[in-house]
């Protein structure tokens, strides 16, 4: 039997995709960009909190936590810091939660969430 010549690849080609820096799609105080999220955040905060937590596969009441905001920000490479996340959640909880939900909705529509 004749042996067929085979090329042996010793080194596999490498592909590295550097993740591009992301950004929040709306500002912290851009409530008018999605009035339904804003109204839900103002008048039914617990409902919005649970929606965000469900979207992030977390416990129902953890949606407005600093940990969830930091997890989301780092997952999508959004610049910021834990201190900034803490300040947003501590002093402007409804606005920070609305911003997070608007961003989730935007990424969901694009199919990148």
TrEMBL record:
- Which residue ranges run through the membrane? none
Record's protein name: PLAC8 protein
Instruction: Write out the similarity annotation.
Output: Belongs to the cornifelin family.
Q: Which gene encodes it?
A: Plac8_0
Q: InterPro entries attached here?
A: PLAC_motif_containing
Lineage, top-rank taxon, reads: Eukaryota
Coiled coil (residue ranges): none
């Amino acid at each position: 039997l004749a042996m067929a010549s085979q090329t042996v690849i010793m080194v596999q080609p490498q592909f590295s995709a550097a993740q591009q820096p992301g950004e929040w799609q709306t500002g912290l105080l851009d409530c008018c960009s999605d009035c339904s999220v804003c109204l839900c955040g103002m008048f039914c905060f617990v409902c919005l909190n649970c929606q965000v937590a469900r979207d992030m596969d977390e416990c129902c009441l953890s949606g407005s936590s600093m940990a969830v905001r930091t997890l989301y920000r780092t997952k999508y490479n959004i610049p910021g810091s834990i201190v900034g996340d803490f300040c947003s959640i501590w002093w402007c909880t409804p606005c920070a939660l609305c911003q997070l939900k608007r961003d989730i909705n935007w990424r969901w529509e694009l199919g990148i969430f």
